[in-house]
Design a protein that fits this description.
Blueprint (H helix, E strand, L loop, with lengths): L1 H22 L5 E4 L1 H4 L5 H13 L2 H4 L3 E3 L5 E4 L5 E3 L7 H11 L3 E7 L15 H11 L3 E5 L7 H16 L6 E5 L17 E3 L8 H11 L11 E3 L13 H4 L7 H13 L4 E3 L8 H8 L1 H7 L8 E6 L2 E7 L5 E7 L5 E6 L9 E5 L4 E6 L1 E6 L4 E8 L2
Parallel strand pairs: 1-2, 1-10, 2-5, 5-6, 6-7, 7-8, 8-9
Antiparallel strand pairs: 3-4, 11-12, 12-13, 13-18, 14-17, 15-16, 15-18
Bound molecules: alpha-D-galactopyranose (GLA).
The site of alpha-D-galactopyranose (GLA) has 9 residues, from loops.
């Protein structure tokens, strides 16, 4: 009997792990409403964004999810089914999901493990099974599940997230589960067991270099917890926001320069982070389009080995990150956190890489030399981003 129970437990755990791997084998990529639009969203914006994902090349670069964040809800009907705000989404979410799917994209939605969401809208606590079924019936592919207004202790958090994780599994549809309790209860230890495919590791990102560095310093330490199907989520990319609009700007984000936005993309890519843009891609300039869609940079993020880079050097405001890749290559990021240009000489033996390597610059998209070291200047807040291929 005990043996049978053990086998049952073993196989059900193995099966749910296999599902998690299939649902998010590489870090999810997409676009999310929150940091540009805040609560001011509606179905026309989402449709326009779906069109822009295609015309800008974002979809073909790998950004497949469009996520509706907080502010879509309109309460519950007389059967307690959650409903969208009829003014913002007059055609309903199902019709919107059909449209998004017709463009070769997927649709995400947002709720919270309490009675209200962070922005004060109707949430899912006590209605987990019913809401999961509703989301599945609409054709939802991804749920971001927040934690405002919920009790602070970890036991409750684990229970509430597992309740929704189980509800999603029973919903009849594959729905990626994104856990958002801001890293406060160390979700890297338990979120995957609750059914999570990714979990936020920090509080919200702002559109500023200091915010990026606050998040980076926490997330970079968590490399050993990431794997296919289970990712550390350091929040949205802020590339292209330019301090213009939305919570990431209003709440203290003044914008970054283009070098800093490239660092955001390089660091999130090498940390195997979900790549979730939030700028207005309908009107994005070529500069931001190229930063967000660089195929060689995205290939590092989406590498099937699914390793998050380890920080191998951190000294004098210089950080070096190393990520092994599935074909035996390595990605290396060299970041200058300081306020002045740095002259750097990096011997690959310091990274425990022996022998000589061909060095490919992922931003310039060209090979820049070969050997046993890299030497050069790194500008303030710049991240050099290379792929190293072993020379035979
Ligand atoms: C929290 C989350 C954000 C966003 C808002 C919505 O702050 O961390 O990412 O979803 O709620 O209200």
């Amino acid at each position: 009997m005990v043996r049978k129970l053990f086998l049952l437990f073993f196989f059900s755990t193995a099966i749910s792990f296999a599902n998690a791997q299939q649902l998010a084998p590489t870090p999810p990529m997409g676009w999310m409403t929150w940091n540009f639009f805040g609560e001011n969203i509606n179905e026309s914006i989402i449709r326009e964004m779906a069109d822009a994902m295609v015309s800008s090349g974002m979809r073909d670069a790998g950004y497949h999810y469009i996520m509706i964040d907080d502010g879509w809800q309109g309460g519950r009907d007389n059967k307690n089914n959650i409903i969208p705000d009829p003014k913002k989404f007059p055609s309903g979410i199902k019709a919107l999901a059909d449209y998004v799917h017709s463009k070769g994209l997927k649709l995400g939605i947002y709720s919270d493990a309490a009675q209200l969401t962070c922005a004060g809208y109707t949430a899912s606590y006590g209605f987990e099974d019913q809401d999961a079924k509703t989301f599945a019936s609409w054709g939802i592919d991804y749920l971001k599940y927040d934690y405002c207004y919920a009790p602070g202790d970890s036991v409750t958090a684990k229970t509430r997230y597992k309740k929704m994780g189980d509800a999603l599994k029973k919903s009849g549809r594959d729905i990626v589960f994104s856990i958002c309790e801001w890293g406060q209860r160390y979700p890297w230890f338990w979120a995957a067991n609750a059914g999570g495919n990714l979990w936020r590791t920090t509080y919200d990102v702002r559109d500023s270099w200091s915010s990026l560095m606050y998040i980076y310093e926490i997330n970079v330490e968590l490399d050993k917890y990431a794997a296919p199907g289970r990712w550390n989520d350091p929040d949205m990319l802020i590339v292209g926001l330019r301090g213009k609009s939305g919570p990431a700007s209003d709440l203290g984000g003044t914008g970054c320069n283009d070098i800093e936005y490239m660092s955001n993309m390089s660091l999130w890519s090498i940390m195997a982070s979900p790549l979730i843009a939030t700028n207005d891609i309908r009107s994005m300039s070529d500069v931001y389009r190229e930063i967000l869609t660089n195929p060689e940079v995205i290939a590092i993020n989406q590498d099937p080995l699914g390793k998050q880079a380890a920080r191998v050097i951190s000294r004098d405001s210089l950080d070096v990150l190393l990520k092994p890749l599935s074909n035996g290559d390595y990605a290396v990021a060299i970041m200058n956190k300081g306020s002045k240009t740095k002259k750097v000489a990096l011997s690959f033996s310091e990274l425990k890489l022996d022998g000589a390597y061909e060095i490919r610059d992922l931003w310039q998209k060209k090979n820049i030399g070969q050997g046993t070291q890299w030497k050069g200047d790194v500008l303030t807040h710049e991240t050099k981003f290379y792929r190293l291929k072993k020379q035979s």
